[in-house]
């Protein structure tokens, strides 16, 4: 009984941890949007041009990958320090649609730019990822539950059937 009991306790501990992860993931899933709102505004304000620092490269990467421009739309770039300092009346080239070959990012040709903002798409992606994590944790929790059930069955059988005791004490396996 002492050899299997720690195993069942460890499985129970892992199971409870997974349950806590699922509950916290579901609760804080709603807070993702608030955190993204705060962070994305800060990152856009610190944009310093393509291929400069890591946050700026991250903005360009997100805009290219998610096919978006700005926070809510391309006009959000007008409120950034980079737009005001560059004085070229254009947004980063990463806002350009790939089908437009000579796009310079100028706001006078908005049809060349992605129309959707990045904030909603980033929030959507993060929520999708969190749901994958929640489902993975639920899957592992169900496997752990099955493991705990098997451990309990072995414990119960071992205490009632002398054949199990014989296998354990003689270290012989059938």
From TrEMBL:
InterPro entries: Tetraspanin/Peripherin (IPR018499), Tetraspanin_animals (IPR000301), Tetraspanin_EC2_sf (IPR008952)
Pfam families on file: Tetraspanin (PF00335)
The entry's keywords: Membrane, Transmembrane, Transmembrane helix
Chief place of localization: membrane
Keyword field contains Metal-binding: no
Family annotation (Gene3D superfamilies): Tetraspanin
Superkingdom field: Eukaryota
Compartments, record wording: Membrane
Membrane topology reported for the UniProt record: Multi-pass membrane protein
Transmembrane stretches, start-end: 7-28, 129-156
Family that this chain belongs to: Belongs to the tetraspanin (TM4SF) family.
Protein name: Tetraspanin
Organism: Ameca splendens
Gene transcribed to yield this protein: TSPAN3_2
